[in-house]
Write a structure and sequence with these properties.
By secondary structure, this protein is an alpha/beta fold. The protein has helices at residues 12-17, 23-26, 29-53, 63-68, 74-80, 105-122, 138-146, 179-186, 201-209, 227-239, 247-253, 277-293, 299-304, 307-312, 320-338; strands spanning 58-60, 87-89, 128-130, 136-137, 151-154, 163-164, 166-168, 173-176, 212-213, 257-258, 264-265. The chain has a single domain, classed as 7-stranded beta/alpha barrel (Alpha-Beta Barrel).
């Protein structure tokens, strides 16, 4: 679950007319608030359904969602009621691509921030780590292991076919997301032109039952599946003797299979956020600023790292070049105050 702080259209003269950097200077807080009002009510209703049905799952809540929850404290209370029902995982606080920075200090800072926020706000200590965009490699595995995490969820490996298990990357147990079934449920199920439309709970449960192995991992946006479908799927899985588990339950119940393939994994190979020069340059500048500021990064710098900003520079978006010019103007104004 993630809600970003979306940028506003920024004119450089506004920066020079302002004494200091602020959220209102760089981010469209009115729009962010209006979107959050709507989505928070959806999350609260969904949390109530999860609580009432006892559906076992693992939540990955972004730090920006925590920050926006000040606009509706009932959302945090609804998550707290799910303690003991669902598992809460940790991730980089700002949903950032900081694990790709040359220096890993910012990445570690954000992971610690997120783990502390879960403890302070929800009252849980996470042992599962889910990186932004499911990024995983040998360096990340070592770092999160040193931080005390015992399990990772990462992007699936197409070469594994339909063999679904818990794996061991040589450092930690890893659950690989099944990319096809996850996207079927999150995206293709809403496409009326899809050859499998309409996707019923019975059909989807049967697909899962035909898979080889003992652990199949789905990872998708919380609001992409209706309550009715989830309740029906729980029933259909039960009819086939299939049980829903949290990440920690899965790795503790089943032996891990050693994975000896390439360990450079990420959702969609990051093509949606690192496919052109603008995106690569922005990520490079973020890494450079992080190295200069060290541990002195503030929340504005965190929000400027959101992977969502890189998505919007993708050439499949309506106005990627205009968006990039605006984004670099904001980053430049911020940087001149800090460097």
């Amino acid at each position: 679950m993630h809600q970003p702080f979306r940028l506003r259209w920024f004119w450089p003269h506004e920066g020079y007319e302002s004494d200091s950097a602020s959220l209102d200077l760089y981010f469209d807080q009115s729009f962010n608030h209006s979107v959050f009002e709507e989505i928070s009510e959806l999350y609260i209703r969904s949390n109530r359904m999860i609580h009432d049905t006892g559906i076992a799952c693992t939540f990955n809540l972004s730090g920006t969602l925590f920050d926006q929850s000040m606009w509706n404290p009932e959302l945090i209370r609804s998550f707290k009621k799910l303690r003991g029902v669902v598992e809460f995982a940790s991730s980089p606080y700002y949903n950032s691509l900081s694990p790709l920075f040359e220096e890993k200090g910012e990445f570690l800072r954000q992971v610690r921030m997120h783990r502390d926020a879960l403890s302070d706000l929800i009252g849980v200590r996470s042992t599962t780590f889910i990186n932004t965009e499911l990024i995983h490699n040998s360096i990340v595995a070592r770092l999160v292991s040193e931080l005390g995490f015992s399990t990772v969820v990462s992007e699936g490996v197409f070469g594994l076919g339909d063999h679904c298990s818990a794996f061991d990357d040589g450092v930690l147990p890893v659950l690989f997301r099944h990319p096809v079934l996850s996207c079927d449920l999150e995206f293709r199920s809403h496409d009326t032109l899809w050859c499998e439309y309409p996707l019923t709970a019975s059909k989807f449960a049967e697909w899962i039952a035909q898979m080889e192995g003992n652990v199949l991992t789905l990872y998708l946006d919380y609001g992409s599946v209706s309550h009715e479908f989830l309740e029906d799927l729980l029933h259909e899985l039960g009819l086939r003797g299939i049980e829903l588990l949290t990440v920690s339950e899965a790795v503790s119940r089943f032996d891990s299979v050693f994975y000896d393939g390439a360990l450079h994994l990420s959702r969609l190979n990051l093509k949606h956020c690192l496919s052109n020069h603008m995106q690569h340059l922005y990520l490079h500048e973020l890494g450079r600023l992080s190295q200069i500021m060290g541990a002195g990064g503030d929340e504005i710098f965190g929000y400027l790292q959101q992977a969502d900003i890189l998505f919007e520079m993708g050439e499949e978006k309506p106005y990627p070049f205009d968006y990039a010019v605006n984004t670099f103007s904001i980053l430049s104004d911020y940087a001149r105050r800090r460097v």
